[in-house]
Write a structure and sequence with these properties.
- This protein has 259 residues and is α/β, with parallel strands linked by helices.
- The protein has a domain of 181 residues: Decaprenyl diphosphate synthase-like (Undecaprenyl pyrophosphate synthetase).
- The chain has a six-stranded parallel beta sheet, sandwiched between helices.
- Helix 6 links the parallel strand 3 and strand 4.
- Helix 3 packs across helix 4 and helix 4 packs parallel to helix 5.
- The structure holds 3-methylbut-3-enyl trihydrogen diphosphate (2 copies) and magnesium ion.
- The site of one 3-methylbut-3-enyl trihydrogen diphosphate (IPE) has 11 residues, from strand 2.
Length: 259
């Protein structure tokens, strides 16, 4: 079977993951926090001779499906890397398109997210976003603030080094003001100055598209996370792939340096 048809075939098969396999998964050790570096939208489009924007648009639909699935199997927090502080280097046209995506995504899916009890959080420098993007993400956070189901943590205009520098600056301010003593600076306290304050470290990290690197993503928080890489491009990523990642995670032995 040709690779492309194989993927379509698998896609169809995965669309109907039966309730039994979901239930089976539910009884096992579900990673509470899953983080995903959603990569490969551009290559997906290129392989179809489509503009890169088509890949981003297709990728957005996958976010919706995977969010729903994660919520159903009992994941508590899903962090999705959607735009990095380095992605501003891309051509203006692509950046403009990417800045429109949260607006489009939330316009279309916010009612559904509210219905599914999902709480939306934006992890990143919101102040650096264009007004329309900022308004959309702020509305989503406000409208879902009281939901207590899955936390959908969208990393947008996020970079781990920038996050840590910002945290260090705030911490130094608090030391200067006498709110914090240098001796009180523990790992836990430092964590509370990061954008993930109140969110546990990811249990599982997934990166799609075959790239084996972190690209400035959650460098502090991933210290003891289990990593799973796949060649599947993000627009092709299915519930079945997600389930496979969880099963691999479940077979891992997390020792945290102990025995
Ligand atoms: C991931 O897909 C989405 C963003 C980084 C915004 P890419 O746009 O990086 O796709 P590739 O890596 O070029 O295929
Ligand atoms: C990482 O992907 C950022 C996001 C997925 C948003 P990139 O495509 O920007 O990363 P590099 O350039 O391959 O490292
Ligand atoms: Mg990429």
């Amino acid at each position: 079977m040709k690779a492309i048809w194989k993927r379509w075939f698998n896609k169809d098969a995965s669309a109907n993951i039966d309730d039994n396999s979901k239930a089976e998964l539910k009884n096992l050790d579900i990673p509470e926090h899953v983080a995903i570096i959603m990569d490969g939208n551009g290559r997906w489009a290129k392989s179809r001779m489509l503009p890169r924007a088509a890949g981003h648009s297709e990728g957005m639909k996958v976010i919706r499906r995977i969010t729903k699935f994660a919520n159903e199997v009992g994941v508590k927090a899903l962090t999705l890397y959607a735009f990095s502080t380095e992605n501003w280097k891309r051509p203006e046209k692509e950046v403009n398109y990417l800045m429109k995506l949260p607006v489009e995504f939330l316009d279309t899916f916010l009612p559904e997210l509210i219905e599914e009890n999902v709480r939306v959080n934006i992890m990143g420098e919101i102040d650096g976003l264009p007004n329309h993007t900022r308004a959309a993400v702020e509305k989503a956070m406000k409208d879902t603030a009281h939901n207590d189901g899955l936390l959908l943590n969208l990393a947008f205009n996020y970079g781990s080094r920038a996050e840590m520098l910002l945290g260090v600056k705030q911490l130094m301010e608090d030391v200067k003001k006498g709110k914090v003593a240098t001796d009180d600076i523990t790992e836990e306290l430092f964590s509370s100055y990061l954008m993930t304050d109140g969110i546990r470290d990811p249990d599982l990290l997934i990166r799609t598209s075959g790239e084996i690197r972190l690209s400035n993503f959650m460098l502090w928080q991933l210290a003891y996370t289990e990593f799973w890489f796949t060649d599947v491009l993000w627009p092709d990523f299915t519930e079945k792939d997600f389930m496979e990642a969880i099963k691999v995670y479940q077979a891992r032995s997390r020792r945290y340096g102990g025995l």
